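Regression test attached.
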Amino acid sequence: MDVILFLIFAIIAVVSAINVVVQTHPISSAVSLIGVMGSLAVLYLLLGAEFIAAAQVIVYAGAVMVLFIFVILLLNAGAETKRGRSFMVQLLGVPLLIALLGLLVFFVDRLFPRSVTVHFGGFSGGSAQAVGRALFTTYLLPFEVTSILILIAILGAIVLARKELD
Amino acid sequence: MPSSITEVYFPVLVQGVIAIVLAAALIVLSYVLGKRVKNKIKDTPYESGITPTGDARSRFSVKFYLVAMLFILFDIEAIFLYPWAVVYRELKMFGFIEMLVFVVLILSGFFYIWRKGALDWSYSDRARGKR
Amino acid sequence: MDAFIVISLIKIAVVAFVLLTAVAYLQWVERKVIAHIQLRMGPYRVGPHGLLQPLADVIKLITKEDMMPSYVNKPLYLFAPFIAVCMALLSIAVIPFGPTITVFGYQTNMQLTDLNIGVLYILAASSMGVYGIALAGWASNNKYALLGGLRSSAQMISYELPMALAIASPLLVSNTLSLKELVGTQSGNILHWNILHGPFPQIIAFLIFLIAGFAETNRVPFDLPEAENELVAGFHTEYSSMKFASFFMAEYLNMVTVSSMATLLFLGGWEAPWPAAYGSNLIPSAIFLVAGLTALYHAANPARKMDKYTLPVFGIVFLGIAGLFLLPLVQSWLLPLFWFCAKTGVILFFFMWVRATLPRFRYDQLMGFAWKFLFPVAMLNLLVTSFLVAWFS
């Protein structure tokens, strides 16, 4: 059951991700990206990280992607025009992609030996309580530093928009 | 009683399937049952009975973009509140101080953008801010 | 395991059926309520007291012409109503209607499933609702639709912040994200409900949550996306037949979700206002008894010709329900269900009352209100609550 669910949502994630690249209109790409975020959240859930899954949907699918869509609307970006691809691209594109993916798999397999096997339901530290306990005792400093990061981002947003606001 | 995570989320999954089927059924049903009459005038965007002018998709105020950006930042802040709230009984006053530092830093940014007029939507508001 | 799956499927089927019927009739109730506030009759032609009106509406909408304009972005134009309804339907999965009960020897919750992150699940589903509106506005390729969609999505994300903060405040007292446990921490009497619970009653958070809920569901006075006088019908200008109705269905489903969330977070969920030892069990019967007797009285003195036949039926049904609440066999699940529905119903009535009463905001007022008033107040409320909770613990 777990494996079937994992496969279903992994396939949805990969197909959506490919769709992000294949779609010519930015809005369609953005919608596909929402699909990727959503299915990633389900994968987190399958691993037992409930809080992260919810945060993934709320922050990434619910907030970041809204910004993406607003930016696309704001710039009134149209569909990208397809230029004729050169002969070399048509010939070498797919084989090179496969080679790159093969190399990636090879190096990941080599450099990160499987010390622990992941199995569904084995991890139980993903509840909001566990995250809270870790975040507000052990990792207190990173948490407080996050606020500075957010503060800088707020200032950055205002600097970016200032010219248009005046 | 359900125990494993798949069992707990099983009803959510079924509900999701029902939602997808139902929502699709609504769209398909009206497509199948409704009759269609097409003509050229009918097939123009509605602009209060006047012949449409220009492209509907024009550029927008940067305000909307700014709101979305600020929303992300404060949404991240809000999501941190939840793991904090559920363990608050254990943290007590220590937890309050932690969150106070966090929130005060972010709120200082909030009041800064307020002063800068990023939250003003009408020109009269902005003019008042400049004065 | 098998029994669990079967029970789950039965529960889901029942909840889906009841929910959809309730949503259809919510429309009828709303029309009636607003009509009576404005001294009109409301729907009256289709069936007794217009009771078959929702059915007639559905048949009409399904058989209407299904326009597929040539200038729209087809996939997204169809995807927008789809995602709006989907996300609205998902929320119901975690809403508890009552405590754990025993039916034919099986223990089960009166809830589809009890998630550890129930509150966040609702927040996530509602945060995805914005796409239905934004995409509908964009895909329609119509100026009014695009403006309406953009305004509405900016409004929804702006009000999501105060809402998230208002939800976090009662959680400081309850310390759980599971909606079932949340109600468990409020049991006892009305003083234990989070809206009145010490050390700091969450009345402010409750009001902020309600106001943000109005804005999230795009209801009056926050129905800017469909401000008729400036935007025609807003984001659904170019939609017809059932696609058009999908957005309304999503709106009403979201209303139900917001109302039940307010009930669970602040009003003690399915808990009675005072313990059964002091006779709270008799309240539902008393209410239905009074309703039944009123209907019978008016049947004896009919104001209209039809009333002579319809009102006795209503009267007898009400009296029957009053009797049902006294049966010990069904009391264990009927009473919590009554209190949950009563509280949710009062909030839903409030939604309709406000629609009949208040004018619409101007857009700059709307955004200013969210950012300059609700957000700081919600933040302050949260900090004061956390300070007092820590101080008195």
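Expected vs. actual: identical. The mean pLDDT of chain B is 80.
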